[in-house]
Structure formats: structure tokens, C-alpha cells
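ugh ok fine here u go
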Amino acid sequence: MYEALETAVGAQEAPLSIVISTQAATDADLLSILIDDALRGTDPSTIVKLYAAPPELDPFSEEAIRAANPALDSFMNKREVLAMAADAARMPSRENEYRNLVLNQRVDSSTPFVDQAAWTACGDEPRDITGLSVFGGLDLSESGDLTALVLGHCDPNNGVWHVRPIFWLPADRLAEKATRDHAPYDLWASQGYLETTPGAAIGYEFVAARLKEIFEDYQVTKIAFDLWNWTHLRPWLSKAGFSEQTLDTVFVPFGQGYRSMSPAVRDLETMILERKLRHGNHPVLTMCMANATVERDAAGNRKLSKKRSSGRIDGAVALAMAIAAAPAAWTAKVDIAALIG
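structure:
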């Protein structure tokens, strides 16, 4: 609808477009892209007025509310707004909704796996991990969807993880997938954050060849993989030159149920909260984390889940698997040279 309105202004002598809204949930949403572009001053004919509570303020304070609502003393029901703040402070499940709709902060109204501020706090650039020992998580997708590989190196001096995400999508109909998932895949591909595979489906021959290149660039100790579609990928890995020993020892299956994922989710959550992660604000990984919520079983175990059907969480799952692969691999003291050579 927005594109139709914008393209129609060419027929007008003095067109004026006005967008009034609370902020969208993620950086990838159209409104967020428009706001960020305007704040950069790219187009001097575009003016943005953004009233949002700064993240450093106490979100439940009147100061924060006033920063996002200049009309608080004019036509808003101040008593009701303050009551909303009190409810959100008392009930964490309502906090994100309050932050988005009252404080106009860029957060999803549903409860995410991790708080956006905590994820952003880990956004420093990771070190170059080329040639270093790494652990990986490989989340194989449906033929036309996002496939994710996340590699991570843990600095032995401070326990900080430096991650290198790699994502694949079919090149065909990339713009349609971007519209479907509300994510600028075509832009990310042009910027180098997303690799495209030939054709309309993920070509496992292509992925296998890329994995071989990756093994030549990194000291891959373990890669935890989702069993989904592994039987289709393994023959291509053999054809790409991987030995049977490497396929049986470096590639390790990782279940997607509560038993395997719950410890992985806990470790990833702890790492983020303690700022032991460096992800460089990789946009595709950030999108996956923003889309991730958690499901619980009766015993309180957790696993990652999507907040909506079109939301992609493959990168979040791959990151959790990469971290989960590390302790067992260190204990085993794998001989990298023997496995890869």
C-alpha cells in the first residue's frame, strides 16, 4: 500500500505524504527503515519528528513517559497512562507492550527471548576469527527458506564469544521473500550479509562447497546440526571432499526438542546478559533474535520458537547450537589437523 501511494505522487503537482504511527517492532520493518533514513538526513525533503523515551531512562518514570508523549498534560489521560506504567512494572509480561505503545520504543509487543537492549549491548564488532578454532551451529531449512550457519570462537582469556554468521537464501524471487517475511533480504544480499544460492531452492551442492571453503578458512572443531534434511546434505559433503571421519566426528546431531535445546537456550541467554558475546549487529542474525520467543514444557524446560509464522529464527537456533557444541568438544580434545587433513 505504501509503495502504491508513493508511486502515485508523480501525478501530483505538490505531493505531501504524512506518516503518523507508533514505532514498529524491529529495524527491518518499513517504518523503521523510513525513520532511520530520515534521521540520517539522506533526503532533505523528508522531515522526521520522533518522540520516544530514551533507553537509559527508567521506563516506568514520568520523565520517560513525558519524553514520548509531549501531550501528556494536554489531552491525554495522565492518570490512566501512569496506571499503565504501574501495571507494566508489576507484570513483566506487559512491559514490551507498554514500551512500544506508550514509550514509543522499537520493541515488539510480544515477549522476546532476549531483551533488545541486552542484545544491542553485545553489538561490538567481533574479532577476526579466521584461522582460529571455532564451533558451529547449522540450521538446515526448507528448500526455499533461510539456512543458517553460525561460527563462534571463545576467547580463552575472558570467555567472550566472537561470532561469524553466514546465511543462505535462493536467489530466485528474493524480493517476494523479503515482502513475505518483512525483511530486506535483497538489500542484505547486496550488502554482503546474506549469500544467495542459484535457482529457486537451497542447493545443497552449493552449501556443501561453501562448507568446504569454510573448513579451509577456520579450524572447525564441531558443528552441531539439525537432523532435518541431513540425509540430503551428507552425500554432497562427501562429494565436496569431506572424509567420512570428519562427517562422523566433527558434524554432530543436535535435537530440536526441549531436552537438547533447554540447556543451549539457558547458556545463550546467560552469555547475552553477561555481555560475553560479540555479534557486530549483524542484521540477519539480529532479525532472527528479534523473532525468537520461547516455549516451555510442564517441567519448565525451554526451546526457541517463532512469534509469528513468517518470522525467521534460524540464526538464533544456529547460535544456540554453536555454543552448546563447545563444552563436549573441548572435553574430547579433538585433533583438528587429523580430522581436516
